[in-house]
């Protein structure tokens, strides 16, 4: 009290305060710059992969400050839902194609149809981003799966390692022979214990055989079709020669040379290069039912860029999306991550693929890859398909019973009011 | 009066924290449980009264998830409690290196359940360490997490491993409060080791055992991380527990109201079970020896 009450001290304190405030004001004025347009972008790639691209965008757009955030596949969905619920969604967001239908159904995404018409010829994957002819997102990356074949195990089984697996019969013969003739090796990787991805592994056989999940009007299930039943019978015929485990374990077994054939994506190429550089393998198209019928269908997924209705900077977000999908901007992200290919059609011509033949096999697979239907009730439909496939794989139901049950349950979901 | 005010002031930060992160979410979830609420369409929110509760109680998925959860609790609680008690007895009787053994037993409690689950995911893999040992012993492979019959017991086994150490240390602490003279007198009376355990040690640590039972019951009913990391409710929904079911409804189907009703049914269930447990076992965990 004594010191504070001292008039000399009070004068000194007042002078100091005045100087400090003046300095702060001067500093503040001096640093004041034009306010930047802050754009929030959420995506799943490592920041180190995307940041150089963002830096280029910012350099080309000096008034824009892009705040990039990396989501994880484990919790990204929850984070996006929470942000939308809180009314503070990012301006631009990378979305998985299986997450998109629910967002479209709930009208949370901006209808971009009229604003992206000029981009259509330049990008693959519009079917994944569109519902009833309207585009609700822009394809950024597209992914598919193909067969990884351990050529050494094929040779050890007494088969011609140079021969391609073209048909279902070829696939069965290969996996059966490996399982029977190579000690401690399994022929094929059949997914179990993770029902959420079962349809991605089975449906390629059904699609290749002319089957589907819904009819062309998306109003009726066709899961019980003869084509699907035949495909499921074939798929289950591989079970005795298969390693029944999760995808991660299939890939681990393939890396250590203990499994002949697995269905996987381009990420496995990098894993093999790092962990098993000496392994002899080939990447082949998914088999077709027979040489004279069907297609080499595979699963097609996509990473799309969506703009939420809650965004206050939709025009700037669209500009960023347009920039990101350019081949020269997607290729660096693909090269850094190796998960999914650029949706830009021109990216396929990049010289990178001339030097990386294994990866280019996926580009050959893409034209016959099929995306699941973008339906507002896809989450329920997917759950039913996976559940019934799991029943069949575990032998609880015959292929016919499982697929007919799927038919009835999906039709009930489609008939139910929202 | 001044002391009371100082006490209230001291408690204020905790009180504020509890109000914001405890009371408010509880009340908010209760309100949500009476609504049809999709977080993506907040404009369509509507009052449905007890419909969410009625839907849960008539849903086969709810009963299946509840059955799985109860199986998990019933399967892990007695085993964990018995093992923790036995381990605490062994630790109490160790003369040399007690610190090391205590630390070793307690170690799993210091790990995140995600880390533990990831380690067990590798152990349980078809080509994992456990099957490697079985193969070395010329035994067949076991589909730990792929077999619908074995998946839940496999998770139970992991959970018991992860929690025994923590509870053993709690029981050991209660044991340590027992005066040596009392134990010595009992031995002089000619009581066998088993009799000492039954007549002296067990009654003494009973409040702590009750605390362990209550704590483990609550934790077991909340099982989620293990299922999320290891099985995602499969295979064939054999590990679909109540909290995982709730999570799926909330974040895959965006049915926040229904998921909140499920959460409140779980709260009610656990509350009733805890009251019954307390009545049956007697005592008050608050009476645990300090």
Descriptive report:
The complex is a heterodimer of chains A (418) and B (290). Chain A has 2 domains: 37-144 and 300-370, Periplasmic binding protein-like II (D-Maltodextrin-Binding Protein, domain 2, 3-Layer(aba) Sandwich), CATH 3.40.190.10; 146-299 and 373-415, D-Maltodextrin-Binding Protein, domain 2, CATH 3.40.190.10. Helices cover 46% and strands 16% of the residues of chain A. Chain A is built from 18 helices and 14 strands. Chain A has helices at residues 2-5, 7-31, 47-60, 76-85, 100-105, 126-129, 151-156, 168-181, 198-208, 226-237, 247-255, 267-275, 314-324, 327-337, 352-355, 357-365, 378-393, 399-415; strands at 37-43, 64-70, 92-96, 130-131, 134-135, 138-144, 146-150, 186-191, 242-245, 259-264, 281-284, 298-306, 341-342, 369-370. In chain A, strands 1, 2, 3, 6, 12, 13 and 14 form a 7-stranded mixed β-sheet that branches. Chain A has a 5-stranded mixed β-sheet with strand order 9-8-10-7-11. A two-stranded antiparallel ribbon of chain A has the order 4-5. In chain A, a hairpin with a 2-residue loop joins strand 4 and strand 5. With 290 residues, chain B is mostly helical. Chain B has one domain (46-287): MetI-like fold, CATH 1.10.3720.10. Chain B is built from 12 helices and 2 strands, in the order αββααααααααααα. Chain B has helices at 2-32, 51-57, 60-93, 98-106, 113-123, 129-136, 151-176, 180-188, 193-221, 225-230, 242-251, 256-281, and strands at 35-36, 46-47. A two-stranded antiparallel ribbon of chain B has the order 1-2. In chain B, helix 4 (98-106) runs antiparallel to helix 7 (151-176). The radius of gyration of chain B is 23 Å and the shape is globular. The relative contact order of chain B is 0.14. The A-B interface holds A 77-78, 81-82, 84-85, 87, 102-103, 106-108, 192-196, 243-246, 249, 252-253, 256, 258, 379-380, 383, 387, 390-391, 394, 396 and B 38-42, 125-127, 143, 145-146, 148, 151, 231-237, 251-254.
